[in-house]
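Hi R.,

Here's the chain you asked about this morning:
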Amino acid sequence: GEIRRLEAALAGRLPSDCVVRPLFGAMPFAAQRAAIEPPVKGRKVVLATAIAETSLTIPDIRVVVDAGLARRSRYDPASGMARLVTERVTRAEATQRMGRAGRVAEGRCYRLWTRGEEGGLAAFPPPEIAAGDLTPLALDLALWGSDDLAFLTPPPEATLAEARALLHDLGALDPAGRITTHGRQLAAMPLHPRLAHMLAIAGAQAAPLAALLADRDPMRGSGADVLPRLAALRGERGNADRATLDRIRTEAQRLAKGLPEGGDFSPAQMAALAYPDRIGQRRAGTEPRYLLAGGKGAIIDSADALAGQKFIVATDLDGDPREARVRAAIALGEGELREVAGARIERFDMVTWSRREGRVLTRRQERLGALILGEQNWPEAPSADVARAMLEGVRELGITAGGAAALFVARVQAARAGGIDLPDCATDVLLAKAEEWLLPYLTGLRTAEQWRRFDLLPALRARLDWGQMQALDAAAPAHFETPLGRRIAIDYAAAEPEITLRLQEMFGVTRHPVIAGRALRVTLLSPGGKPVQTTTDIPGFWRTSYADVRKDMRGRYPRHPWPEDPTEAEPTLRAKPRGT
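And the predicted structure, written out as tokens:
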């Protein structure tokens, strides 16, 4: 792409005796020869990439223009894919390129960077072992029986581990990492282990596909579908490069020698044998995005013929770590998938909390790696599993005690503040220890709505043993018994425990009630139900403010008693009969 863009940029800007010759490996042989041979007349400008760093000598080259960039293949162990990246040239590469100008005579090199940038260049390009796919190396090491080798550059541990994981999936390594009989068969083939596995299982019929996938694309720019490429190999018409096709056919014949025919596999099934981690399932939505069995994402051009397929096998990806672009793939039917990968399809019983739906989901799934091939509801899921999933929902939704449960929590916290040894009922503590006290009570709950209506009181009370409940009732009782014997709920939600009752009901009280070591906050009401005084000192109120309250209230409520000395009066809620 860079060569073609530069060729277009130079068009019409060079002298008439100057001819521009691109040079790259995928070009027809005649065009490559024209770039290498001396021009018949005038001058020649050769546009090339790192091919100029090989031993190839182009006669009569006197000038080199170095853009200072290099294209490298970088293998990403996390995605299991390699991609080409453009990076700054290294000093070693720049020196080698400069030497191209002086191969046959004195020449000149123009570098498109400043001398000041020279010191920032790396000394050498990275060794291939540090940047490449290590699957073939990992298979060789297993074949040799040891990886305790004195590497000049040790292979990256993550990349080597990913390579071994792939070999395990292909059946080349056993669970202990030792080579299997199948692995020895793969190691004997002159192919990447992926393609060797495909040949070993599918036999000679897979040789054309293996040769095709191992070589350059003979139909660049013709969409992602591999099937037209296979058709071109069979001689059917297609816009394919003949030289590349001839090379692939020759390689296919070589690979097929000595191999049995194998079973009846479709091209898509053969590709799935080589790339089990790249079987892709179309995601929901309008864009042709796919989830690969290995867990990574991929996308196909929306105009491509494969864009509407439910399943594909991606045989070539650009290696983007976030979402790789599919460069080559084959459509795979679900029936074909189940035939070729049936042994790898696993059944899972799923009981999970769905944050989006606000409920526990119980599903039975069929999975191939990260792909969900089938799913159905599972109403018979074990209640213990449902309760545990609901607990995850509780942790998300939070714990909010209301009504009687809120009163209980407030009582416990008030008693704890008074020095009573009781379990902490603070919200964060309740959440942290929910598995201990709440899980047994979640049986039957599945939704956020059910949780909002759930009565926490029984589960909260169960946290206290009999002795602790007795201590709680003594230190922070739920009710206050008035002099008339009425039980009034004590409100512990405020800063101090509080009750509200009619003033006349407290006649005769000479000691202020105390709860949990603190004075009970008492709101005294008029006969009409309106607050007339809030106090934490009833005896003090009788001695001081009561006289003013009595003076004000006698005229408003003449039928109710307002004695001069309330400490000597009998508590009452009654009024005098009318007319008396």
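The longest helix spans residues 242-256.

Let me know if you need anything else.
M.
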